[in-house]
From TrEMBL:
<keyword id="KW-0997">Cell inner membrane</keyword>
<keyword id="KW-0067">ATP-binding</keyword>
<dbReference type="InterPro" id="IPR003593">
    <property type="entry name" value="AAA+_ATPase"/>
</dbReference>
<dbReference type="InterPro" id="IPR017871">
    <property type="entry name" value="ABC_transporter-like_CS"/>
</dbReference>
<dbReference type="InterPro" id="IPR041701">
    <property type="entry name" value="MetN_ABC"/>
</dbReference>
<keyword id="KW-0472">Membrane</keyword>
<dbReference type="InterPro" id="IPR027417">
    <property type="entry name" value="P-loop_NTPase"/>
</dbReference>
<keyword id="KW-1278">Translocase</keyword>
<keyword id="KW-1003">Cell membrane</keyword>
<keyword id="KW-0029">Amino-acid transport</keyword>
<feature type="domain" description="ABC transporter">
    <location>
        <begin position="2"/>
        <end position="239"/>
    </location>
</feature>
<dbReference type="InterPro" id="IPR050086">
    <property type="entry name" value="MetN_ABC_transporter-like"/>
</dbReference>
<dbReference type="GO" id="GO:0005524">
    <property type="term" value="F:ATP binding"/>
</dbReference>
<keyword id="KW-0813">Transport</keyword>
<keyword id="KW-0547">Nucleotide-binding</keyword>
<protein>
    <submittedName>
        <fullName>ATP-binding cassette domain-containing protein</fullName>
    </submittedName>
</protein>
<dbReference type="Pfam" id="PF00005">
    <property type="entry name" value="ABC_tran"/>
</dbReference>
Length: 248
């Protein structure tokens, strides 16, 4: 479980807080969405979860361990438990697909033969076994994101953070990547935290969501709770689409 406890983040003196006393809990095995307008603090919050950004105050508890109190070595170890995928994929263009996926395994000093077996397993998981030798420039956006997902899962993380991972993709490709993320969540039990500006993404795969405005939590809860609460704006925006049933 991830617990965010009273987290504030100010980037520079005199600037308004990017996060202002944010508290929330992310249950194990869930898919948790972070929504809000541009500048609301979504990326800052996501990056605080693995301490890519260090909170100015507050605590980030990962399975009970406060990340803000760890030494650099302990933090590196904990970060292996948190994979991350990005809107721009962040692949290494001079390396082929298999070698991109192997990066975290190389960093963790996994022996070569074991690395190759793990990479093959990951490429099968994301449906890219036939692209192992291809270079990123030869792939579609959806395929590049699949490589990003395989790389993020290489070290068998318990958590996967997704920073607008489908924003650069067309609707059909978005749907197939969301399906893959849901399969990973269900099959591997990986907890997924995602930022999105598309409420359709939250509707499609999230169990819970938080909305942020000006660095503060406006609402949070499970989708079922939010949808059942008539006073919830987020719940109304996430209402299931009306099905038009036509009599034949
Ligand atoms: N590295 C940084 N240095 C200074 N200010 C920053 C930095 N990163 C973000 N900010 C500021 O913090 C606030 C929150 O930004 P953040 O990127 O977290 O919002 P966001 O909701 O993810 O926005 P977007 O949807 O546009 O990515 C904004 O006012 C932004 O300008």
């Amino acid at each position: 479980m991830i617990i965010v406890e009273g987290v504030s983040k100010t980037y520079a003196n005199g600037q308004p807080a990017a996060l202002d006393n944010v508290s929330l809990q992310i249950a194990d095995g869930s898919i948790f969405g972070i929504v809000g307008r541009s500048g609301a603090g979504k990326s800052t919050l996501l990056r605080c979860l693995n301490l890519l950004e260090r909170p100015t105050s507050g605590r980030i508890l990962l399975d009970g361990q406060d990340l803000t109190q760890l030494s650099d070595k302990q933090l590196r170890e904990q970060r292996q438990r948190i994979g991350m995928i990005f809107q721009g994929f962040n692949l290494l263009h001079s390396r082929n697909v298999a070698d991109n996926v192997a990066v975290p395994l190389e960093i963790a000093n996994v022996p070569k033969a074991e690395r190759a077996a793990r990479v093959a397993e990951l490429l099968a998981l994301v449906g890219l076994s036939d692209k192992a030798q291809a270079f990123p420039s030869q792939l579609s956006g959806g395929q590049k994101q699949r490589v990003g997902i395989a790389r993020a899962l290489a070290a068998r993380p318990a958590y996967l953070l997704s920073d607008e991972a489908t924003s650069a993709l067309d609707p059909e490709t978005t749907a197939s990547i969301l399906e893959l993320l849901r399969d990973i969540n269900r099959q591997l039990g990986v907890t997924i935290v995602l930022i999105t500006h598309e409420l359709e993404v939250v509707k499609a795969i999230c169990d819970s969501a938080v909305s942020l405005a000006e660095g503060r939590v406006v609402e949070s809860g499970t989708l079922v709770q939010l949808q059942a609460d008539p006073s919830s704006r987020l719940g109304r925006s996430l209402a299931p689409s009306l099905q038009v049933v036509r009599a034949v």
